[in-house]
Design a protein that fits this description.
The protein contains 10 helices and 12 strands. By secondary structure, the chain is of the alpha+beta class. The strands form 2 sheets. Strands 2-1-6-5-4-3 form a 6-stranded mixed beta sheet. Strands 8-9-7-10-11-12 form a 6-stranded mixed beta sheet, sandwiched between helices. Helix 8 runs antiparallel to helix 9. The relative contact order is 0.09. The C terminus is likely disordered.
Length: 338
């Protein structure tokens, strides 16, 4: 196994031991790969550890707390770069959400970016010599060294409580609703309102974008699409990120079908124009599946599956298209212009 692959596998195993299976044995495995000169920087509690002794104590303290929480991995990626034959760096990200069987008002969610430096010791064993991890905040503006918007909000305790309640509903990367909150709000709208339009928007070839241009560019595309959806759909529309590169919107079917198609066309044009500068002049694209609530009693799962079927048809038709579900003849209704 190449050194890059080995270090990526080691890093993945470390994070899984730390977050998914925080047993005493696994924490022992983490500590065993730590070099005596290990240093660690983190933004969770703004901690800086200059010695392995300090870092190990922090890991042991975290173990007691982590045993009370179980996480599910939503997404993860790892990239290794060899500085020398005996020194390598692994950087990447892991996005996890607290796992609970029962319904909960809020779930813990972490989207961590990290860099880990490894070095070969005299016994030809890879050891961790430095760890740096951080978590992005959607309320931290580009160019800010810390989230000033959040600092202002903490002045009022009641505002802070409301802010945290709202954050529990939002996707940390994009600032729109996360999957659970989106589904809950759409279910309420479906139960209370008549004609509804439901859209699933899925970026085309997103893995290729990440592999070719890097995950930071992929993150920028996700934020761009979320921004355009917020700008072009009405304030009362429910907009969410279902996971990865899949977004969804649910709105009251107001206006004519032509007006809704014109709006989707504007979003697509802006996305292609703005994404082109991120992708070396090659505009990004996405596919859209559309479903409508035409009868009472339709559930979230039913309308989602109809839109998902339409999305599959749009992908089959060459991507960069929008589609309605297949009609009686089995053919999807394609909308190339939107």
């Amino acid at each position: 196994m190449r050194a890059e692959e080995l270090l990526c596998e080691m890093t993945k195993e470390l994070w899984h031991c730390y977050l998914l299976e925080p047993t005493e044995e696994n924490y022992g495995n983490i500590i065993r790969v730590c070099d005596e000169k290990l240093s660690m920087i983190g933004t969770g509690r703004h901690e800086i550890f200059n010695t392995s002794k300090e870092a190990v104590k922090n890991i042991q303290d975290n173990q007691k707390e982590a045993r009370q929480i179980s996480f599910d991995v939503l997404d993860e990626w790892y990239k290794a770069v060899m500085i020398r034959d005996d020194v390598g760096i692994v950087y990447g990200g892991i996005w996890v959400r607290e796992h609970r069987d029962e319904d909960a008002d809020a779930l813990i969610e972490m989207d961590t970016r990290f860099t880990i430096v490894y070095a070969l010791n005299e016994d030809k064993e890879w050891k961790t010599v430095h760890v740096h991890h951080s978590m992005p905040y959607f309320d931290q503006a580009d160019g800010e060294f810390y989230p000033k918007a959040l600092s202002a909000k903490v002045r009022e305790a009641l505002e802070l409580v409301e802010l945290f309640k709202k954050k529990a509903e939002l996707d940390l990367m994009t600032g729109i609703y996360n999957h659970d909150s989106f589904q809950r709000k759409v279910e309420q709208r479906l139960a209370e309102e008549g004609g509804m339009c439901f859209y699933i928007i899925d970026l085309d070839d997103f893995k290729l974008v990440n592999d070719t241009y890097g995950h930071s560019t992929g993150d920028a595309l996700l934020k761009l699409l979320a921004k355009l959806l917020r700008e072009h759909f009405p304030d009362n529309a429910v907009i969410g990120r279902l996971g990865g590169d899949e977004f969804a919107v649910c709105e009251t079917c107001s206006g004519t079908k032509e007006e809704r198609e014109e709006r989707l066309g504007k979003i697509r044009s802006e996305f292609q124009r703005l994404s082109g500068s991120m992708l070396e002049g090659r505009p990004g694209s996405y596919s859209v599946g559309i479903a409508e609530k035409r009868s009472e009693g339709i559930t979230y799962r039913q309308i989602y599956e109809k839109a998902d079927e339409a999305l599959y048809l749009a992908k089959q038709q060459g991507k960069d298209k929008a589609s309605l579900p297949a009609g009686p003849g089995g053919q999807g209704i394609e909308r190339e212009s939107i």
